[in-house]
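re: the backbone from monday

yeah here it is again, tokenized this time
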């Protein structure tokens, strides 16, 4: 299960209110895309869901359990960032295995899990190589592998493809869609890219100034933007 409920979530940095009471219900297995201008609070919201930032107010509820007080590793969430740091001196295998070593899993289980993940991400021929030998897309897949290997219920992606060139982004879009289908996990995906939002999302959440402007299926937002702001982002203004 990976059902996520945000109830009036707020975040202040000093006097500055960055997230202004966001309420959102995300279904188990849903692919939700967050869009909105730079500085509107997308990363802050993801960081609170992951437990990397405290909430100032409001509840974060996963599968019916309030998780505000739980540390990141206890939330069943994996986060993949735009700038992913792989360990250059370790093989692809060891990079993916790293979170399992932290959890002190036994060697046979680690091997089984890493090989399973490598197969899904088409990295099975690369396991003994160092990251420096891989392409940008392959390195990003290693970072995703390291997130998947702990079998999280919920994935958070913060503009994971924005450092890749257009052709690679298109490939990764297809791979992430496949991954979502294979893992049946809940995914929240932040992007600036309208094509990513339109093609990958079950629902798009448009954020503006720390608030939700509109939530809906891609075509719903495209054809019926509720305001000029949404229209400017994804709409078909008429
Ligand atoms: P986005 O990811 O949508 O570009 P962010 O969530 O990174 O936006 O930032 C939202 C706002 O919060 C911005 O105005 C940013 O400057 C501010 N902010 C983010 N993190 C901090 C912090 N640790 N301290 C103070 N202000 C912050
Ligand atoms: Mg951000």
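seq for it, each position gets an aa:
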């Amino acid at each position: 299960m990976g059902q996520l409920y945000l109830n009036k979530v707020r975040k202040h940095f000093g006097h500055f209110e960055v997230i202004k009471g966001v309420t959102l219900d995300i279904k188990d297995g849903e692919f939700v895309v967050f869009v909105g201008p730079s500085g509107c609070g997308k990363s802050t919201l993801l960081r609170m869901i992951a437990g990397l930032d405290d909430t100032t107010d409001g509840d974060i509820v996963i599968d019916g359990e309030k998780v505000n007080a739980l540390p990141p590793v206890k939330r069943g969430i994996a986060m993949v960032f735009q700038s992913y740091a792989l360990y250059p001196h370790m093989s692809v295998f060891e990079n993916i295995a790293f979170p399992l070593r932290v959890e002190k899993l036994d060697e046979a289980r680690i091997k089984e899990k890493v090989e399973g993940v490598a197969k899904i991400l088409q990295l099975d021929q690369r396991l003994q190589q160092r990251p420096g030998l891989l392409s940008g897309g392959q390195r990003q897949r290693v970072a995703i592998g390291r997130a998947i290997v702990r079998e999280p219920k919920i994935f958070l992606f913060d503009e994971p493809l924005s450092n890749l060139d257009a052709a690679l982004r298109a490939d990764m879009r297809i791979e992430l869609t496949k991954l979502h289908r294979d893992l049946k996990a809940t995914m929240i995906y932040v992007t600036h890219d309208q094509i990513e939002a339109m093609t990958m999302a079950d629902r798009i959440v448009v954020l503006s100034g720390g608030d939700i402007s509109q939530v809906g299926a891609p075509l719903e937002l495209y054809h019926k933007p509720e305001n000029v702001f949404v229209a400017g982002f994804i709409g078909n203004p008429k």
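The longest helix spans residues 166-183. The radius of gyration is 18 Å.
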